Amino acid sequence: MAEHPHAALVRKGYEAFQRGDMDTLRGLMTGDCTHHVPGSHPLSGDYKGVDSIFEGYYGRLFSETGGTFKVELRNIFVDGRGHAMSVHHFSADRGSKHIDEMGGIVFRIVGDKITDLDECVADIEKGNDFWS
Fold it and tell me: What are the φ and ψ backbone dihedral angles of 75, each rounded to 5 degrees?
């Protein structure tokens, strides 16, 4: 059975992110896409527009962790109505801190583009401590 197009889109995004292929990843999102990051730390908040997402958030994920930030996609669920939900494992080192956690993202998809990403984490306090 073929993978649902929304699951394939999300999978392609994770693969591009892991390779550092930001051009491909950027092409999967609408220009006004928003990425919502949970917590109360310097990287949390809402990043509106692909430039803000890529420079303000993704760029900082890599720079703050010296390139050690890694994410491994574990599963994707779709509803066939423009929503997909991923489950992933992520890890990174930042100075003397290490994080090794589970998380996920709820994606909103219109046509063949991601319009919104709502990130969720297993332990917000661990994330707050790691990024603060």
Answer: -165, 155
Segments of the chain scoring below 70 in pLDDT: none
- Distances in whole angstroms, Cα of residue 83 to Cα of each of 1, 23, 107, 115: 20, 23, 6, 10
Q: Which residues of 31-60 are buried (b: 16+ CB within 10 A; e: fewer)?
A: eebbbbbebeeebbbebebbebbbebbbee
Residue 123: the pLDDT is 97
Per-residue pLDDT at 2: 85
Burial class (CB in 10 A: 0-12, 13-18, 19+), 11: middle
Q: Give every CB contact of residue 82 below 8 A, 6+ residues apart in sequence.
A: 6, 108, 109, 110
d(CA 13, CA 17): 6
